[in-house]
Design brief:
It holds the Pfam family CoA_trans. The chain is of the alpha/beta class and 201 residues long. The protein is built from five helices and 13 strands.
Length: 201
């Protein structure tokens, strides 16, 4: 449901980087033409792949098998990050552990747990023209993941542009978070109850 809603925001032509988790599902719902998927380990023109056509050497940054579109380009990691840092990625879609009410995210480390590494998230936050975040609205214990201030290490001081959860869609504005959409089945009361961060309706 989250991935389907994010796909509605993508308008071609554009280059889109899909992060690990929910963001990888966005590709299944894209209907616009001329949207080119980028993975930071070195492929522009990522597509789905049928099980019979899986090449174990062809994976995205999350180590999941992918296919290559007609006209796809392969390049090394340094060139890929030059694309990101040079502002050539139009939209980055990332997962997050927490988001604060100014749109700053924490998505790479949970204090006290093993750290896998930040991956390309810091670079994408700095270099992508727009950043969309997909996440569950609450943690497993029911606590809000949209906070007044992140308690986990932040990924970048750059604010994201939009936040998508199973309950709501928020735009990040100069005045904080603005609720722009309720997800199917969600109520404004539920969103208020489960959101620690302040937001404008």
């Amino acid at each position: 449901m989250i991935a389907k809603r994010v796909a509605l925001e993508l308008k071609g032509p554009c280059t889109v980087n899909l992060g690990i988790g929910i963001p990888t599902l966005v590709a299944e719902y894209m209907t616009e033409e001329n949207i080119y998927l980028h993975t930071e380990n070195g492929l522009l023109g990522v597509t789905d792949v049928e099980e019979a056509g899986i090449d174990p050497n062809l994976v995205n940054a999350g180590k999941l098998p992918v296919g290559e579109a007609v006209g796809a380009s392969f390049f090394n990691s340094s060139d890929s990050f030059a694309m990101i840092r040079g502002g050539h990625v139009d939209v980055a879609i990332l997962g997050a552990l927490q988001v604060d009410e100014t749109g700053v995210i924490a998505n790479w480390a949970v204090p006290g747990k093993n750290i896998m590494g930040v991956g390309g998230a810091m670079d994408l936050l700095v270099g992508a023209k727009k950043v969309f975040v997909t996440m569950n609205h609450t943690s497993k214990d029911g606590s809000s993941k949209l906070l007044k201030e992140c308690t986990y290490p932040i990924t970048s001081t750059r604010q994201v542009d939009m936040i998508f959860t199973e309950l709501a869609v928020f735009q990040v504005t100069g005045n904080g978070l603005k609720l722009v959409d309720l997800m199917p089945g969600a109520t404004i009361g539920e969103v208020r109850e489960k959101t620690e961060a302040s937001f404008i309706e």
